[in-house]
Amino acid sequence: MNMPGGDDQRRLRRMEAILAALLRYGAIVAGVWLVLGLAWGALGGGASMAGGAEAFSDRCLAIGIVLLIALPVLRVGLMMIIFAIEKDYRFAAISATVLIIIGLGFALGVVDALR
Question: What's the rounded Cα separation, in Å, for the pair 27 and 67?
Answer without folding.
Answer: 8
